[in-house]
Amino acid sequence: GDVAMIGISALSYDLEQKISLFHDYRDIEFIEYGIDEATDIEALNHHLSKKENKDIKISIHLPLKTNLVEDIGFLRDANFNYVSNIIREVSYLKPLYFNTHLGNVFYSKYTSNYKNYIQKANEFIQRLLVEYPNINIYTENVYSFLNQASSDLCAVGTKPIEFMDLFEIANNKSLGFCFDLGHALIQDEDFSNVIKNYNSMFHFNLNDKTSDQHLGLSKTGKYTKKFFYELIDKYGFSYIVLELDSSKAKETIEILELNKL
Description:
Elements: E1 5-10, H1 15-24, E2 28-34, H2 38-48, E3 57-61, H3 73-90, E4 98-100, E5 104-106, H4 107-112, H5 114-131, E6 137-140, E7 153-155, H6 160-170, E8 175-180, H7 181-187, H8 192-197, E9 200-204, H9 225-235, E10 239-242, H10 246-255
Parallel strand pairs: 1-2, 1-10, 2-3, 3-4, 4-6, 6-8, 8-9, 9-10
Antiparallel strand pairs: 5-7
Helix pairs in contact: 5-6
C-alpha cells in the first residue's frame, strides 16, 4: 500500500517546540494536536495563522473527556455537542483525521451489558459522521488497571474484541483503529487481528508496562530502529504518530534517521 505519513503529537504547551521539529525534518509531515477545551483551539489558531506555518498539516486528538459510551441521555448530548463544536471550529484546517478514546463507564455496568455500550459508541460515531460526512475518525485502544466491580469508572476499549465488534456493527469506511503501542503493552493485549482487518493508524510510544511513560526508541536493547521498522512493515498503517515529548521525539527521529530539510 501507500507509505504511511509520519507525524508527531502536540499539546498547547509544547506546540511551538513541535512546530520547530516539523520544520527541521522533511519526513515529519503532520502534527496530531490534542484539544481539551477552547483555549487549546485558540493556541492552534494563533500558531497556524503565522505565514511560516501555513503549510503544516494537522490532525486532531479529540478531548480525553470525550465519552462515546455515556449512558445518561442529557450528558451524552452535552458530550456530543462539546465534540461537535470542536470539530466545527477546526474544520477550516481540514484535519487529516480525528482520533478519540471510547470513554468510561462503571465497571459493573459495562461487564454486565457490554454489547449495549459498543452500540452506544457506534451511535455516537455515526451521529458525528452524519453531521460531518467528510471526516475520518480513528478510535484508540486504552488501558485500565481496574479488574473488579467498584464505583470507579472503567476505561472502554482495552481489548481487541471491543474494536472488532464496534467496526463490524459500524461498517463504515470513515471509521478506523488507532493502535496505541504503549497502552497495549500495559494491557498486554495483541491487536494484530484488528490492525490487519481494519484501516489502522499507529500511536508510537513505549513503557515498562507499569505506567504510561511515553518512552521513545533506544540505540540498543529491545526497542531499536529495527523493532520500529519491522512493526510498521508488518502492519502497514495509514498514519504514524510519534506520541512523545519534544526531547524524546527528537531522539527517536534521529534514531530512525528521518530526513532533515
